[in-house]
Amino acid sequence: MLTSWTNWVGNQTCTPAEFAAPASEDETAALVAAAAERGLRVRVAGAGHSFTPVVATDGLLLDLRKLGGVRAIDAERRRVVVGPATTIGEFGEPLWAARLALPNQGDIVAQQIAGAISTATHGSGLRLGSFSSSVRRLRLVTASGDVLEIGEHDPDRLHAAQVAVGMLGVITEVELEVAPAYRLRERIEHWTWDEAWQPFDALAETHRHYSFFWMPSDDSAALYGLSSPGESLADRCHVKIYDEVAESTPGSVEPRRRVGPAHVIYPMVYEPNFHELEYFVPFSRGREALAAMRELMLASLPASVFPMEVRTVGSEEAFLSHSYERDTVVISVSGTPGTDYDPYLRDVDRLLGEYDARVHWGKLHFLTRAQLLDRYPRANDFIELRRALDPSGTFLNEHLAPLFA
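Predicted structure:
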């Protein structure tokens, strides 16, 4: 029997009073109601892909893996209904068979969809939102054990629930709007900093997906498997460009020049040997923030040895989204397990705070309550709804309560 829980990279652990793995919505509701009646807090484990303590609880920890799978596909309306534990990787083939696809996705596909939308996990592209932005309906087990269905008829509640970090209830079903099936052409190259940074705005606006990893030192590239034999990548960029191609375009498996279905092209394989911070700044100030980050990282070696990943996300409407009502540049850096990386990441936090940075709820961050209310225009509206649905704070924990109680 499980006595503790640990996330995928081993930097978060907890010892819940109880574990449960419900096999239905009704069983989930009964477990939540019983826990709330006894004063136990409730959190959901998901796939454990968050670096922050969003899962941690000393109360009831739920494992929803029995509630996975694609439940329905409506090709005409471009909708898919899934269980909360469905992984991103499990969408690809069923949607492709129906000539559909996720509008976008990141390079890790092991996350469960409920966790991905709850933390506003995303891919890259200035015209593309996070997973949360495609949610059109969901079902929640609230702290009372009741089931609440929230859909497009109630846009304010939907926009609150799209990114809720598990604080409104336990998600038991999700309906997403998806896209017509599409194929991508990959282009991966190594550029100088100036080649990647100077035309950043134009490249992000021109391509479906323009992103890069910038390496501050010769040791950086190997940490993400980006090295090329005999090539120094210090102060250079590993650039990734994806664009849609016609059905008639021949497929390719040539490294760095692949052509194929989107769900085949996106994923990458990472070893979980890093602890990541990810902040979002307005696109209008992105180049300025990136230049400042480069200078900070060059001055912070060796603590800053991990590459800086740079992406974009389009504007969306979820109240707690990093991209609420603004296009954003995503800046990700990591700390090395076993080192004291906290001072470096706090320097990053202070620097990007000058650019009105918002955070990824599943990545390391130092957001305060005052910053939350200042940087998220609808934070108070979310907090009011959270209090109405969960007045006793059943779905909070020690990490979330200082921000949202």
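Summary: The longest helix spans residues 286-299.
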